[in-house]
Amino acid sequence: MKKTIVFLHPDLGIGGAERLVVDAAVGLQKRGHRVVIFTSHCDPSHCFDEARDGTLDVRVRGNTLVPPTLLGRFAILCAILRQLHLMLHIALFTSELRGLGPHVSFFVDQLSAGLPLLKTLASASPVFFYCHFPDLLLARGRARWWKRAYRLPFDALEKWSMGFADAIAVNSGFTKQIVTRTWPALARRRDLKVVYPCIDTSPPSGGPEATPLPWKSAGVILSINRFERKKDVALAIRAFAGLAPSRRRAAKLLIAGGYDHRVPENVAYHTELTALADSLSLRNATAATLISVLAHDDVDVLFLLSVPNKLKETLLRSATLLVYTPSNEHFGIVPLEAMLRGVPVLAANNGGPTETVVEGVTGWLRDPGAVEEWTKVMDEVLNGMGEEKLREMGRAGVERVRGRFADVQMAETLDGIFDEMGAGKGIISDELLFAIGMIGAVVGVLCAVWIIVKNL
Length: 456
What we know:
Pathway: Protein modification; protein glycosylation
Structural class: alpha/beta
Keywords: Endoplasmic reticulum, Glycosyltransferase, Membrane, Transferase, Transmembrane, Transmembrane helix
Family: Belongs to the glycosyltransferase group 1 family.
Number of strands: 14
Strand order of the largest sheet: 3-2-1-4-5-6-7
Radius of gyration: 23 Å
Distance between the termini: 46 Å
Protein name: Alpha-1,3/1,6-mannosyltransferase ALG2
Shape: globular
Helix content: 40-55%
Function: Mannosylates Man(2)GlcNAc(2)-dolichol diphosphate and Man(1)GlcNAc(2)-dolichol diphosphate to form Man(3)GlcNAc(2)-dolichol diphosphate.
Low-confidence stretches: 425-430, 432-437
Strand content: 5-15%
CATH class of the largest domain: Alpha Beta
């Protein structure tokens, strides 16, 4: 049966969570369902193509009362308030949600705080929550007592609110273990499903195939990650610097990824990485377009900010090796993208990549604390392995992605979960009544603020 599926996502920018949301939405849409994505922020210059070219129905709502942060702080508080505002906007302040029909299912991810309100506003609609990773474990600065005290109510709200979902899924076996250890009571009560993020394995629908960069024959080592310290991109630079100049020859390290000038950490970390490259005597430059990329032929390390899909495709087809540096990554979609294009992957030997990269078959898994081991793999790829061995690993990568991580498989799995939710009885009524009482005051305050703002 065809469904109307409403996605609620905080910020539809460029990142692994956003890529999963876009792929899930496109996959479900291809299966004949109507899909609408509501988000508090989506910048056409900083989002995936499907979110701006009309492929998906993306609607920005709930972004007029609360800013993303207050003086650069209180991000989690603002995110929760923006989510509540979005839900109230589409369900109460306008008839937008009702206009989608009486039978709507919800796909919510990243932020569970609004689930009790959502179940109050649309109690007959099944709600699916996708847990990328427990937010309480992502928050940094816990060593400070005031930070721990500040986070306590949000951590408790995350645990309590997640229980209002009719179905919960996680992105890997690794994340399932973490969630079970973090919230054992929740794990005992609910069946945590593993739904792997997947990618589109179909050939491009139009246009010429991306042309490899001119440095491919010399060797291109590629890193694709957001410019965040937890991604440990510095590991790739240190490992590359460990190669003797004679072994490095004309090879280049390309560091590409999500970069948002609104995010102070992105700006600061890019500066730190360029300073690290300078300190290691690696010539480096920063580029933003393909033309500017080609202009930098005399550098060792090239930084690329906010890479659009076409340039990303060119980079992947030009790479000799993909290095994926984050430790304890929840899943990691980039290794799949590389393997689909026949590129071997070097990744940390923990977290999600251990479920996607097969040691010695599609790539290598190494200790992120042993930089010299990463250098050895780079040296082997650039100087020790023959073309045939690299092609063999590339073919194995393609087969693995197509066999286990294709987008059609994720969409089919999600479709089955939505069918199960539709046939179920949903949340226990006592919990729902309790939620109504808990959120009544918040709803009243937000409605009052909205009325005041509208009349200013």
